[in-house]
Amino acid sequence: MAYSLKRLRRRLAMSAKSVATNLPLANGVLARTPRVEYARVVNISKKKYASRKLVVLTYLASALLACIVGFFVLSMVVFAVYSYQLPSPDKLLNRSEELSTKILDRNGQSIYEVFGEKNRELVEIKTISPYLVHATLATEDSDFYMHSGFSLRGMLRAMKNTFFGGDLQGGSTLTQQVIKNTLLSQERTVTRKLKEFVLALQLESKYTKDEIAQMYLNETPYGGQNYGVLTAAKAYFNKDPKDLTIAESAYLAGLPQSPSVYSYYSSDPAKGLERKDYVLYLMNVRGWFEQDGKRHYLSDEDYEAAKKAELKFERANVSFLAPHFVFYVKELLAEKYGEDFVEGGGLVVTTTLDLATQQLAENMVGEEVAKAAKQGLAVGNGAMVVLDPKTGQILAMVGSKDYFAEPEPEGCVSGATGPGSCVFDPNLNVTLAERQPGSTIKPITYAALLSRGYISAFPFLDVPTTFENMAGQKVYKPENYSGGFSGVMSLRKSLGNSLNIPAVKALKMAGIGTMIDQAKKMGISTFDRPEGYGLALTLGGGETKLLEMAGAFSVFAANGIYREPEALLEVKDAKGSTMYKWSDSGGTRALSQQVAFLISDILSDDGARSEAFGFNSLLHIPGHEVAAKTGTTDDKRDNYAIGFTPFVVSAVWVGNNNNDKMNPILASGITGATPIWNRFMTQYIKDYYAKDAKRPVEKFDAPDGVKKLEVDKLTGMLPYRDYDKRVEWFVNGTEPTAVSDWYQKLEVCKVDGKIANEACKSADKTKEKNYIKIQAELPEWQDEVDKWVSEKYGGDDTYFPPSGTSKLAFDSEGNVSGGKIWTDIVGFDDGQKVPLEFRLKVDAWSEDDIEQVEIYLGDKRVTTDKSFPYGYNFVFSPEDAGEKEFKVKAKDKNGRRVEGRS
User: Fold this and answer.
1) Which label site among 125, 391, 580, 711 has the fewest CB atoms less than 10 Å from its CB?
2) Rounded distance between C-alpha atoms, residue 203 and residue 197, angstroms
3) Do 181 and 256 share a structural domain?
4) Residue 118: helix, strand or coil by DSSP?
């Protein structure tokens, strides 16, 4: 059993005491042998403990020395193994076309493939513009001439990203990027990062800084197969590298970070110009660098001048199919797998694109935009996207009328805004651009309203209406496209005819937040500031993307299911291993099946839109059930047509890239985008059924949970008497159960037309009469509805049920006794609070007919009204708030007068 030193001492002491008791005296001195033995034992234990400790330390030191030696030997071996792989600054790397990405359509037809490089030449750093060298160093590695191939700060950042879930990219110096671009695979692993570090040290020890910078500039990718500055300078600007300007140098230096995004030939050229300005900023703030004994820097004056400098790009010299879609796919792949892997990983990508559909769409857009321009529409461009609503797959994407054409007008600055910008910017993919959608957003508003229990027969009042802003002030007064007003219109007809005022009312009733939430469920990502939108949102006041609008409309076609637009079917690496394969997730429920059906039914109802578009317009495709919605922004800068069947959705836009206005006369709902949409849908539907003669005709079938009923045409409630009727679809539980309270049957006094009092009844001076009281959707709009009704039906008292009880008295002979004339203010009591804006209604009667009614604010006359119904619309500012006195004076044709007040 082991003992501690303390316990051992205690036991030895006890033993010594026992021995001392039994030993004899020696020369009168007590023997101290036990004490000596105790000391000896203790000293021996200390020596053994120290000896063991020394042995352990010796082993540790030996192991550490062995590790150091082993690491040194291993490092030497690694350096030796990798050293022969180092690139040379005096020769170009051979790149195999087999490692370029190939993009195929859904049927395996190639739409994008690189067939190797041509005319690549070595460029020495002394023949490269110092601006490009400066721009590159400022952007990629501003400490290049001070480090030894690696940046400790950058490596720590890369390690943090590695161990805490960040991106393995990052932290690379220019030297490391040379290694990455020339020797290593595109995998993102810690092992590859270590190899990169080792080889970077080797490269730094073998070559000068200028030679390493030369390697970088000759081998780095600038987009597509543009490897090296010579190829890039020629491809983008048709210049030698030595002739590049400051602005051109900054543009090229900004590309390597993400060529798929920043390239002029990508989906949005403006992003590359923004990147260029950022590089110029870095050049300005990160000081100077020295080359050939000269210091190069960017002064504040040169910085500002370079930002304003115009860049003239070369057109793409390699033709390929579906160009906007190809760049869209490349951006998706870069997000998934990294820029380097996309450009050089040998991917084989099968996409959702149907090449035949793509070519049909391209032809339609190009031909119809040219035709519209000749007709004086003043439209420079068009775009189109086609989806399969059953899967969300993109079948066609046309980002402009011709990707390979020259920008218009000649000399315009591609990607710029303001003066000198392009009416037609061929590279910009408009299907991904944020633009106002006009009235094409209205179906989402009505879908939100229907989801709250409203019915498609609900009566809207399309009359002049002023809406309040956030401060409660009535400042927004929308108008219809036609400039007129239609009065009572069902929700069905309001949406079908694309009326603006009912749409704004629908948004007010549904709630802006509710509508935005609905839009997000349907894939609209751009409504990102709910507090910043007003009621104009339902008329296109918030920007959207054409691709996302097509995805939103696919929700209606797919019975309320949303599937995000999909471009990829399968991705394989260079070895043939599958990296991604599409499978249908089933989508997410964005809308009830019943509401989706109602919207589809309305938008495919040719009669519901006939007031605005007529019967058999271009929105109608004979023999097929096709839903469609048009849209034009208020300022005529954008024109849309979006439509669908159960098996295809197509969305079309026409306009000008720089937001120039189109011809206001021709840019209507049935010109511009609509002819493109009609031609495409007609041909696509024909081809769809031709592929399978036995395929049944697909319609918008009514789902469970809806029913069709006969209703009153005016009110949408149960039929009333012999008034006009029509049929309408209802979600179960929302169908009407009563006659509308618009219809009123009253007992009135024959003499003054007011509600009969007891005197009238006793004198047998009453009769029953039917009235129609048109009621506003919300009480706050009633005054403006009443005003419109009075202007529309002023001579027909059927629409003006009496609001007050008769004040007449009769004598025993049945003749009127007492006052022969009277007037009163209707609807307000003394001391009642009134809003800042309201209509003061006046009732007046005389046995000799009323000639006029005067309305006073205090003692000031504000109007003289000579036609029934009498009243005045008061508008006060917040500063006018306070107690007011209103007076009315009536005069009949015999000159008799009477006064009333409130």
Assistant:
1) 580
2) 10
3) yes
4) coil
